[in-house]
Amino acid sequence: MSLSFPTMAAIRFGYGLRPGEALPQTKDDLIAQVTRGAGSVPRFPVGGIEARRAALLDLQDRLKQIRQTDGDDLDRRQQRRLLQRHAQMLFQMDANARLMQAVLSPDGFNERLATFWTNHFSTSAAKSLPMRLIVPLYEAVAIRPYMGGKFATLLRRATEHPSMLIYLDQAQSLGPDSQGGMRRNKGLNENLGRELLELHTLGAGSGYTQADVRSAAMVLTGLTVDQKEMETDFRPQISEPGRHEVLGVSYGGAKRRREDYLAMLDDLAANPKTAEHISRKLAVHFISDQPPQDMIAAMSEAWKKTDGELSAVYRAMLDHPAAWRDEGAKARQPFDFIVTGLRALNSGAGAGDVAAFMQAYQQEDSDGDDMMAMTRAKDAESDRRSPDAQAPDTEAPDAQAMNAPPSLDDEARIKRRKAFQMARALGQGALRRMGQPTWLPPSPAGFEENFSAWITASQLSERLSWARRANAQFGKDADPREFLKATLADAARDETIRVVSQTPNKISGLTLVLASPEFNRR
């Protein structure tokens, strides 16, 4: 290992170095992060889990009211637009909180695992309006608490969550010969069955057939979403009766039960090909695009010995010599790059200057309370239709008022808007430009892992632009040489040290640190 253990641990297995934060000293320190993470509450969804569930139910109720309301289409469209704005505002706040969760957490390994597993069990907030509120909840309650336990439990929680059922259209899947399927003249949707085998467990090319996909989808029928409560439900009346064989194992019977699909999930979790597939994905995410086969074998063996205990699998990865050599083999993905950059710049008292700025300007004042806006719009419409309504005031505006200089309130609003635009440019806007928007993967396969997907001319141009902007905002008082030492420690190459020390001004020096190969790789 050419780098010190703490530096390698922070860069390869976490989100880099943050001023004043202690680095992991042992492998036990890294595993302990996962244990702590299972019992911690993330910063999202904003307002807490119960408040988000209440907001989701309220959204569903309002959407139902709009569908059932008699009146002109313009009024309904206006009400729906206000709902969309409110849902998007909550989603944006959650996405910002997700970013700051990674920036502020001292448990970088746990945060990296959360990113890995949320991508492995990908769902997208773009699927529908309610999904804007559901997907952040999904990571908080179905992924993060179970990343250090048995894979079978994590697989159950992810598969059964409404986010997965809606995203992969399981909520629309009915057994063709079930009572509900025949009555509604609707049939099977194979999406969840296919992705369960291809992405979530066995992996593509592992030997399953199309017949296995269809049978898995049959076993999953009955698993659906209660649209009123937005909770997982199992309904025997839409579950395909009979027995269905998946990989040579038969599930079900004349009367279908929830235990049928749970047994199938448990069997898939215990399959050796699942152990190999996911061990390989973990090694690719953390170590190399082409990890050593003996590392994957060691991780798979740990899986087998512990019945899929994920902490044991992580330990086997950390214990392999390849985990601590060949630094720079992996590219930092955009989320990784931005989080690591913000952490490096996040000096100051308390949570740090970066965190204070990003949290203070995560939304525009003009967003306001859209639920109140909807009420005002409806009241205004009622007033307009009232026979007692007065004619609008058509008097010309006061010319003197129009020419008056901006008030202090106006100047404050302009200043705040510029700050909001900067926070957006450094956070979610940058992630969109770089191709990795939060909770918006391009497909159920999630975001790419390969080095070539993220180290391109356009990517590096965006990163350089981001680095200049971030340093201009947060790094004005930093010494580039000290910043280099604090950010990369012994990972900094002699050439980078030389170039940074010779830059003509501070911002250029700081920018070169964030643009260096060492910073963009891990």
Describe the structure in your own words.
- Helix content is 60%, strand content 3%.
- Mean pLDDT is 92; it is low at 366-397.
- It is flat and about 75 Å long.
- Among the domains are: 38-106 and 118-141 and 331-364 and 407-522, no CATH class; 150-270, no CATH class.
- The strands form two sheets. Strands 1-2 form a two-stranded antiparallel sheet. Strands 3-4 form a two-stranded antiparallel sheet.
- Helix 3 packs antiparallel against helix 6 (131-143).
- By secondary structure, the protein is mainly α.
- The longest helix has 32 residues, at 73-104.
- The protein has helices spanning 5-12, 27-38, 49-68, 73-104, 108-120, 131-143, 151-160, 162-167, 179-184, 191-200, 210-220, 258-270, 272-286, 293-306, 310-319, 334-345, 353-360, 370-385, 399-402, 408-426, 428-434, 451-454, 457-474, 480-488, 494-501, 506-515, 517-520; strands at 223-226, 231-234, 242-246, 249-253.
- The protein has 27 helices and four strands.
